Amino acid sequence: MVSISTKKILNHKLFKTIKMVIEECGIESYIIGGFVRDFILIKENSKDIDFLCADSGIKLAKLLKKALVNSSKIKIFKNYGTAMFSWNGFKLEFVGARKESYNFNSRNPVVEKGSILDDQKRRDFTINSIAISLNKTNYGKIIDPCNGIEDIKKRILRTPLNPNKTYNDDPLRMLRAIRFSSNLNFKIEEKSLEAIYNNVNRINIISKERIVDELNKIILSPKPSLGFLILDKTGLLNKIIPEVSNLKGVEEVEGYSHKENFYHTLEVLDNISLKTDNLWLRWAALLHDIGKVPTKKLIPGSGWTFHGHEFVGSKMVYKLYKRLKMPLNEKMKYVQKLVLMSSRPIVIAKEIVTDAAVRRLVFDAGDDIDDLICLCKADITTKNQKRFSKYHKNFELVTKKIIEVEEKDRIRNFQPPLDGELIMSYYGIKPCEKIGKIKESIKEAILEGKIPNNKKAAFELMKSIGKELGLAPANEK
Ligand code: CTP
Q1: Which residue's alpha carbon is nearest to atom 26 within ligand 1?
Q2: Quick check: 324 and 353 in contact, CB under 8 A?
Q3: Average pLDDT over residues 357-383
Q4: pTM of this prediction?
């Protein structure tokens, strides 16, 4: 018997209006899907609400829209008997109860009218098939024929039908399973896992945008490795991001072996996820070592090297984003930059931390310096406690130095203390290579700590470089 009280949510003004409308029109209706799932999970109530109607969803949507003032324009999908509109921050979607049959090459179903039970069974997971009645006779009653509540209690993901059918019909559900498992820390039922494994090639019919959407949600999980381990186990990772699954394994030749870079990567991703919800910083953690696969080389008598893996990795980011049809925008450049710079602070931390090295680091990283340091700290996965605390201490030192140097020299968003206009007017010349040389030498001198980052020092340096370049001030000509 279900003893969950639905009174709390049904008290909301929205449901009071819905109740009135339904009482009047008599359309048998239920709330279903993620809203109910999250309510039972006692997660914050979602603002996306799915309504299931025994008749067409369009009719109820139109009536409700009239009753709710200030709602958005209604969108109607006649072929599917669905409609949606927004009201007061809520996204309301209405669907008529249906059976579905699928064409092999598409995840768009052929829709046929069905009972409420048919509709609950055609859904992806039992936890998403639970309905709350909005009807007069049993208002607020939970209707759960697939035992979704039991599965929520057991923290298990089960499909209402044979999982082979559920995933074969709509392969996006394989990723949804992994996303729910990763987000909620639910176990995917064994036969469901097997079905994902068997249907892995079906992912080819899913659009890249939808795949990335689910991937992003997995990456944003509290502990993303949970999802990535399942992606890997089922073979989906190799289909979607082979760059990451190729990191798997340790090669041992002539007694030399190297770090296992796949599990290391997942640890880095988990570490960074404890610190930030920044999706793109998490992407950078996921991809920071992908360049190690093509650059791996055994140097006889010395060991394995991954020379230049950061540069190669940053180039791979572009190809990966392009293949997954992800936007090739500033966010991608940010990920590339972090991958490219991912070893820089580590190198600095290993050596004596000089001001000049820190200034160059801050100059190159700009506003992303804090994220870069965050990534590098997450990259410390050694199990040797002594080394672990030594590396962290070194980073504390680098961080301290960054603050000091920043206070002194303001390198982070470096603006040249003398602009080209001023230099040109001083010498009375037009833009030319010599102006560029003067500007570059001033920048270099500041980064090297030879002069402070101010106008006066830069002006003095300009005069001596100008002389070397054979330039005379305009007022002396
Ligand atoms: N659904 C499904 N198969 C899919 C997508 C959705 O069976 N591939 C069903 C599920 O019952 C789901 C409901 O449609 O709960 C609503 O889908 P959607 O709004 O996309 O997802 P939610 O589960 O509500 O939640 P989330 O936003 O977390 O995905």
Answers
A1: 34
A2: no
A3: 93
A4: 0.91
